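One thing: can you check what follows?
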Amino acid sequence: MYFDTIAVRGGYDAQEALNNNGSICEPAYLSPAQHFDTSEDMRSCLSGETTGWVYTRIDNPTVRQLETTLAALESYGCDFDANACVFSSGMAAIFMAATALVADDPARPMANIVLPSACYGGSYMLFRERFQVDRGIEIRWINDQLDLDMWENAIDENTRFVMCEVPANPLLRMTDIPALAQLTKAQGVPLMVDATLSGPAVMRPLALGADIVVHSVSKAMSASGLSIAGAVISRPDISLQHPRTEMRTDFARFLKRGPQRDSGVILSPFNALQSLADLRSLRSRMDIMGQSAERVAMFLSGHDAVLETYYPGLPDMPGHDIARRDMILVDSEHEPGGLRNSYGYLIAIRMKGGVGAACAFLDNLQIFWRANDLGRIKSTATIPAIATHSQLSEQERLESGIPGDLVRLSVGCENVRDILADVEAALGHSQKVAV
């Protein structure tokens, strides 16, 4: 089946529908627990001899449908089957995956993690506070994620995993995943990619060599904005030096059967159903949002009020060659015109008028919602320095490339003419503000 068909059908087929009174949509299993016919059925299920979901903290049929669908979409076109484990949010997914990967290994006591400093503010705080400060794990920040030598020099025998965002939020910086994967595999280190801003309709990091993919499913995958969710998707037999072989053979399943079960960081079945409903149109939405964002980015890059425009689709953007190679609308080769790029829905700009101009621009947007959210069917905008990265010190923001005049735009599915008119009008207001 093609990508769109998998997204629409997921793991729910006609036979399952007949088992659910003919419902063509996946039922919402809101019950917290499963009834067993006999004590022997209960014993065999809890021992793992037979299948069942037992208790929603352990498993749930609706949640499992979402996991099956995400795993199939992320491994689309691959010669292996992926597995997925979903969580209550994207940050929960990153935290649980990272916690498992840095688990105590007596043979390697001096743990370190390697990742770019130019990342989502929540991820920066998570690794700085919860891992470096709380646990004493060294965080090795990469200042230029296009510099492979910098990555290679940071990775050593005590590196528990390497992580990157592709593209990065909010500066849209790219990372050469295949080249980085070669480095990490040579060291036996897992490569984890946060692909929230691309998603499987545009880029599938597992096919490019990554071991683990994490998502804030809350974003483009759940574009209606009605649910919060996160996911960890892994390939079989990840690059990992750890005495627990089950972590290596099926990392996502290991998370589900152990750390998630024990910690209770679960996803509500209702949120899983909302995400499943939104996933059905993922490819077409990413296509519309990507085309509109590219037009908006081109307009912004030539405007007198704009100092810099960050968007992977712009030819002069660092890493554009990587984006052109890796960010391709899935199955577009089967359509008239052939293979085509889709560079995502997120844009960042710096204003010539400084912080005052950035605030004036944001305050005068009418189509864009002023909100710390992205990937929605509704366009949103924010200023990272006072929002997503506000917990970072001024020095940390500057080191991460987040100046006070940076504005982040998430382009939705409104008519692109309305979006462009809104941006142009708001820029007119920003030009009236002195530096």
Residues 282-301 form the longest helix (20 residues).
